[in-house]
Amino acid sequence: MNGFPEILGIIPARKGSKGIPGKNLKLLGGKPLIQYTIESALECKWLNTIVVSSDCEHILRISGQFKGIEAPFIRPAEFADDSAPAILVLSHAVKYYQEQGKKFDYVCLLQPTAPFRSKNLISEAIIRVMQTKADSLVTISKIPDKYNPNWAFQMSNDEQIFRIMKKEILVPCRQQLADTFYRNGKVYIIRTELIQNGILLGGKIIGLVTEPGINIDTQSDWENAENYIRNGAIT
């Protein structure tokens, strides 16, 4: 890899959504949900190409109106149902550009369902990957201590509960808990070679800790996002 890497930004936005029909074009704070992610991507100077991958011509048409956004293909139906793994969506886009003679060192996955990214977050994530020579990066947020996996249970069919963590590694009190984190969906960066081998996150994986965000999957999530905007969290 000579100089700064070539990075493909991919925004996946299928038309189907069981929780919120048509959510990618549904107006949130006066603009389509997908526009938040498009605008964040366009702010990042390190993304060489930004593509919207969708099975919906309307989504592609709206997205293509933004200068700097490409929408050159319709995603095949087999990669567009709600059970299609993200790796298939990324692999399809990477293959498309390879066939056009364009190769990328990394892919940056930006999900429209996580619309609220702090300014320069994508650039910060890319720079962190370069500094650490990581193969993958995922943005994460801290799990509150009261929800720490150390105290998590599963329930059997007969309603008996049992701890998820093995007994020998349980921590007896909150003060001794190690911090734990969850993926917040804001930014993923993956070396293209991993994607070509069917791997979404692999090799040297680093986490970039950010403030908790809102992942919009249900109507309740949508209402939380509306409240977030209404309370002046973003403009």
Automatic annotation (TrEMBL):
Keywords: Nucleotidyltransferase, Transferase. Pfam families: CTP_transf_3. It comes from the Bacteria. SUPFAM superfamilies: Nucleotide-diphospho-sugar transferases. InterPro entries: CMP-NeuNAc_synthase (IPR050793), Cytidylyl_trans (IPR003329), Nucleotide-diphossugar_trans (IPR029044). GO terms for molecular function: N-acylneuraminate cytidylyltransferase activity. This is Acylneuraminate cytidylyltransferase family protein.
